[in-house]
Specification:
2 copies of one chain form a homodimer. By secondary structure, the first copy, chain A, is of the alpha+beta class. Chain A folds into 2 domains: about 100 residues, OB fold (Dihydrolipoamide Acetyltransferase, E2P) (Beta Barrel); about 300 residues, BirA Bifunctional Protein, domain 2, CATH 3.30.930. Chain A contains 12 helices and 18 strands. In chain A, strand 7 and strand 8 form a beta hairpin. In chain A, helix 9 runs antiparallel to helix 10.
Chain lengths: ~475, ~475
């Protein structure tokens, strides 16, 4: 007999059906045994009556056992109807019971929301933790939101392109994760901090509307709400100006909220725009929380950031992205390397309830202007050529004006789902110091593996 | 004025429009200048007449310059109509011309199919190579096919879950890429060869229908048609038997072919099924090419593989996947470690025109049976616990029966697109010895980076 999902049983009264799932709870009422059976669609009350052959084996059932039941769907007595669940008007009278897998007593409760349990324990036993209704909802909503993004962008003519994960270390932004090459001894790949360079090269290659749900990697020092690997919605478009990128993105975000969270109120449409200088003056931050009502979603754009700022050592560095274009009226100053501190970038950040969820810019597709950016930051010609020569060369073969944006999806989705941190919307997150407690990684490796990679571990390395 | 795509101009006769793109070709006819303008939607003939202000600057135009034109769409004289392109009945009479980016003379032709050009050169200048019509079609069809897979599986109730890329090295299958941990000196992450363990843990976690378009990594010796990183459609389902997995997958593959390649003929539906022994006897291979017509798509399933085979050293190893379940009638032999060479696995491979495009199995969700597999392969208790203890423990907390499949998408898509190798359907492929010629990676890194990672390069390492 073909299995049905427990949610389907609500409309199958008097039918004989087969269901499978986990024992959610067990209780007895006199001689009658009740269990709640859980599958991905919901929960169903199952009754074991003493005269049925399923009765004897049912006495052994414990929470989290996996079972398969054939039974008859029956209307519950009126006073027993439970309005709170979709299957609350029926129950399954079990005829046959098959135990598919027994379970040890779970190390923690899976019927609660789980916030009360130590997070280290939840990560180590993530396969138990994911069974709770909240985590199931989070992963399924994450899938739906991301699938909606793909649908929306595909309808708008975008093409998703997969870019490499084994790429090159370049001196920009955060610290890279590195991968020793076995075939090129002494050389290393870097895992990408973002697909920034590849997506720009795709624009030079004629993919005029690109997007990717992209895995990104940053080897950061321990920070509470960061992950070593995270997911971006990455986007880039050719022949556009700032307004074009902002328009389609604002439309995408509004449609997501209205589709999946119709009860949530977007505080202001169109999203208000703040100039960086005004935001700092008024809110003392460039990520202001504009909520008047705590339940609303207060989006805003922040624009007109300075392109450069001074480092602690007094050298110039970029505030957001070295590949950005200055606002058109500052291009001449950039090329002349004059009034550096006053140059504004085309950068636009999207802020939601005080968190930066996305950011991007119109890019600098003139090779000589890109070179000026690196020169201002003190890179010499050799360093520029070694690290960014391929970009400059690409731009010399006919580069369209282009711009884009990238969103930190983990953060955006966690805010939409009212979760306190991004780990609640990631299937297998790592600890703050980047350990996977379930797999017990990172871990020492064999000496033969080290030998093959032509590397050795320094003697003063702290052993685990 | 808002830009239109060149394909849209076909229906805009007598309208003034703005278009942008690359100069595809330049020619003169007496005093009149013609160019073909190319954007992602197609090609448009543009005419520069001597009396227009766009005429003088148009004299400088060269192939691959990026330009922006305002002009009037006009019907072509009857004898000049080109039936071969959608815009062949019209041309654009240019009024204004704006050069967005000049271009050096391209290092190779971008109007041809490109097969005649050295592949190393095509990889180094991939941003030029991607401009050719064939590569544009390949990337766009790849997007459409993968998006269709996501749509299909989402409709069928599947949930896409992203699993980690920074995970653990385990002694199975091919060689891992390793990532030194800076925060845990002396320890390493491994990049996943597949999400096999995580997708099984998701089944234990109640995600009953999982899929993922997953990046996978294998550090293989140079082989012509392999890539160090590649893309899988990865899938896993709970409470299923072999027939359930095969049914939904056969339906998915047939729908893809019928949707995107209506002219291609699938040789036989339902896909024929061959037993491994029969395939070897009749075709001398377990990936037979069953085509009677060279143009057809000859799919078949191969089943009933032996679970174990002897290595060169005379030890037992798995033929496909250590996490597979034996066929039910061989479970007792597995548990008793008897008749090992005769045990058949639940493995099913999907073969297309002589290439294995996918494979999977029903998994072994009984901890004691999984332990028996590793014992047969000669692993001692300590090694099993260290490497697979987390899987065995997960299965002890109530594991549903489950099974799945994974496809090598690069291969499948290259066959559908009649391409001779997988690099033709990958945006930024690497060479056979895993070098990225565009980024020039892998590359040496700075001594400060090595120091931070607590590793050193062995002195005898060959320097680049």
């Amino acid at each position: 007999m073909k299995r049905v999902q427990v949610a389907e049983t609500a409309s199958l009264a008097s039918k004989t059906v087969r269901v499978s799932g986990w024992v959610n709870a067990v209780r007895a009422h006199g001689k009658i045994l009740f269990i709640d059976l859980r599958d991905q669609s919901g929960v169903l009350q199952v009754v074991f009556l003493p005269n049925e052959k399923a009765y004897e084996p049912a006495k052994d059932l414990r929470p989290e056992w996996v079972i398969d039941i054939v039974g008859v769907v029956s209307a519950r007595p009126k006073q027993m109807v439970n309005d709170k669940i979709p299957t609350g008007a029926i129950e399954l009278v079990a005829k046959e019971l098959n135990v598919l897998s027994q379970a040890k007593t779970p190390v923690f409760e899976v019927l609660s929301d789980g916030y009360e349990i130590s997070e280290e324990k939840r990560m180590k036993y993530r396969y138990l933790d994911l069974r709770r209704e909240r985590m199931q909802r989070n992963l399924r909503m994450r899938h739906k939101i991301i699938h909606f993004m793909r649908d929306f962008l595909t309808r708008e003519g975008f093409c998703e392109v997969e870019t490499p994960c084994l790429t090159k270390s370049t001196p920009e932004g955060a610290r890279d994760f590195l991968v020793p090459s076995r075939l090129q001894p002494g050389s290393f790949f870097a895992l990408p901090q973002s697909p920034q360079q590849y997506k720009q090269l795709l624009q030079v290659g004629g993919i005029e509307k690109y997007f990717q749900i992209a895995r990104c990697f940053r080897d950061e020092d321990p920070r509470a709400d960061r992950q070593a690997e995270f997911t971006q919605l990455d986007m880039e478009m050719s022949f556009v100006e700032r307004e074009d990128v902002m328009e389609i993105n604002e439309r995408l975000i509004i449609e997501i909220v209205q589709t999946f969270f119709p009860d949530k109120k977007i505080q202001e449409i169109p999203f208000p725009r703040l100039m960086y200088g005004d935001a700092i003056e008024k809110y003392k931050t460039d990520r202001p929380d504009l909520r008047k009502d705590q339940d609303s979603l207060a989006f805003c754009w922040v624009v007109d950031f300075p392109f450069f700022e001074k480092t602690g050592k007094g050298e110039w560095t970029f505030t957001h992205n070295p590949f950005s274009s200055p606002k058109p009226e500052f291009m001449q100053d950039l090329l002349n390397k004059k009034n550096i501190g006053n140059i504004l970038t085309t950068q636009y950040d999207m802020v939601l309830n005080g968190a930066e969820i996305g950011g991007g810019s119109i890019r600098n597709h003139r090779p000589e202007a890109l070179e000026a950016v690196f020169e201002i930051m003190g890179y010499d010609k050799k360093m520029i050529k070694e690290n960014f020569g391929h970009m400059m060369e690409a731009f010399s073969y006919g580069a369209p004006p282009h711009g884009g944006i990238a969103y930190g999806l983990d953060r955006f989705i966690s805010i939409l789902l009212n979760e306190p941190n991004i780990r609640e919307v990631i299937a297998f997150p790592k600890t703050g110091d980047s350990r996977d407690l379930l797999m017990d990684s990172p871990a020492p490796i064999g000496s033969d593996q080290l030998k093959e990679l032509n590397i050795s571990i320094k003697k003063n390395a702290k052993k685990r």
